[in-house]
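Session log. Operator J.P. requested a structure for one protein chain; no other inputs attached. Running the standard single-chain path with token output.
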Amino acid sequence: MSSLDLSYYEPFHRNAVLNGKRWHYVDIPGDSSGSLGRGKTLLLVHGFPDTWYGWRHQVPVFRKHGFRLLIPSLLGFPRSEAPLTHPGVATGEKFDGHNVHKELGLEDENIQELECYTADFFAKSMVQLLDQLGIDKVCSFGHDWGAVFAPRLWLNYPERVECVSSACWYYQMPMEGFVDLKDFAEVAPSLRYQLYWGGDAPQEVIQKPLKEFMDRMYHHPTENHLLTSEAEYNNILKEFQYGGKTIAPMFPLYKSRKLAYDIDERDFLTKGRTEEDLAVDVPYLFIGAEFDIALQPGMESVLEGYVKEGLLEKQWVPCGHWVLFEEPEKMNKIYIDFLKKVFGSSKL
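Structure written below.
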């Protein structure tokens, strides 16, 4: 049975209450014959608009090498709990860039739910999952929003992470001075779309068929063809229709920017943590997509100061944003070569 088929995963679906919320995850054992990953676990984190199924092309390769795989569904996404079912209410950043967190206060119900969409909440939830499963350490890999969340597990719990990889985004080191998304988009125009996704998008998207939105996300931007097979795309649509939910509860990711900064300020910046303290001190693999419309070459250069010397590896793949399935063979080779350096005889 192929890992591209949804039925392949039927024995591996799990649910857990973590940090008071119900999380879905897939728990897949590694092949006993694989030596590289024997006794090791990979945490694989998807982005937007994606699901756990986004790692389908990597699953058999990682398994073959013996790695156990944990693939969670982010909150608000199919199969996991959706904390903010009405994300159109005031939840922090408004479209015009004005922030209302201080006016609402952290006791406001919507702010409490919005916190579920932060990387901090993700990290605290994942460490609870590791504790429940008796897993000491993981390699934390992510794509898109997962590329923000995966390194956060290291930041909060460095003793639980053996290595990190981010594809199509990168580790967000806590930094002094909040930069509003509107101002950030002026410096990085490729991110201007996030103003819409953090604003009116949820209300407008749910008025239209799901497939209309997904067609835009999963087709080539200029050549108008699917970036994956028809069968895989149908499986993606099935997952997004799981449980009869709308996709609106996924968009609060784009409303959580200021709250995420407030958490960083509280937990790191006001406690005297320096950039040296906050620099990643485990092997870190960054993977960029040469034709990504969001993260463009050069934007990742900050990683030189965010990862300690000798631990950063950067790779670029000649494709668009969906690197995991646009160039699966290249991605799988990059991942396995990196893991061999971490756990094998090769060195970074």
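Operator note: Confidence is low (pLDDT under 50) at residues 86-108.
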